[in-house]
Amino acid sequence: MSKAREKKAVVVKEVEENLTSSSGVLVTEYRGLSVSEITELRRLLRPLGAKYKVYKNTLVKRALNEIGVSGLEPILEGPTALAIGGTDVVGVAKTLKEFAKSYPALIIKGGLIEGEILDNKGVQQLADLPSKEQMLARLAGDIKAPLNKLAYALSALPRQFAYGLKALADKKQGE
């Protein structure tokens, strides 16, 4: 086997591992971004446990075939890079969307999330979802609200009783 083929096989294996080990992969077009802008994007994605890598489309297609995924091939045209999500794919989608606002040369083409193929609109909708922390805070608020109302209602009974007793005592003293 030639050295070029060996290198390609290693890259295909790397892409396969990235596709199977992460919860999602987003495909972007990076044409028009400078090296420093791509480096900045990688720096923004790093805290999320995500990587941003450029692979040859043919090698990505071969890796997709190896793991039995189809449907992503149409968006693997032109200069593409993969944002390989760590644990928070929603965070990666949000970061890409925010970055694309500042740098319109970055185009989000679609992705593969939990085995589901998404187009650009699907990724945009994913990016619009609230973060995990926001969802947990909302859940905690939803759980806490009825408990607060119950506590207020239960505390109102003795308070009203005390007001009634005081009014009765004031009335008796006035007579």
Question: Separation of termini?
Answer: 111 Å
- Level-2 CATH architecture of the largest domain: 2-Layer Sandwich
CATH homologous superfamily placement of the largest domain: Ribosomal protein L10, N-terminal RNA-binding domain
N to C succession of SSEs: HEHEHEHEEHH
Classified by CATH, the class of the largest domain is Alpha Beta
Biggest sheet: strand arrangement: 2-3-1-4-5
Strand content: 15-25%
The average pLDDT is 84
- Globally, the shape reads elongated
Counting H and I runs of at least 4 residues, what is the number of helices?
6
Strand count, sense and barrel status of the largest sheet are: 5 strands, antiparallel
| Derived structural class | alpha+beta
Which segments are poorly predicted (pLDDT under 50) over 5 or more consecutive residues?
A: none
> How many domains is the backbone divided into?
2
What name does the CATH topology of the largest domain carry?
Alpha-Beta Plaits
Percentage of helical residues? Answer: 55-70%
Please provide the count of β strands. 5
Rg over alpha carbons: 28 Å
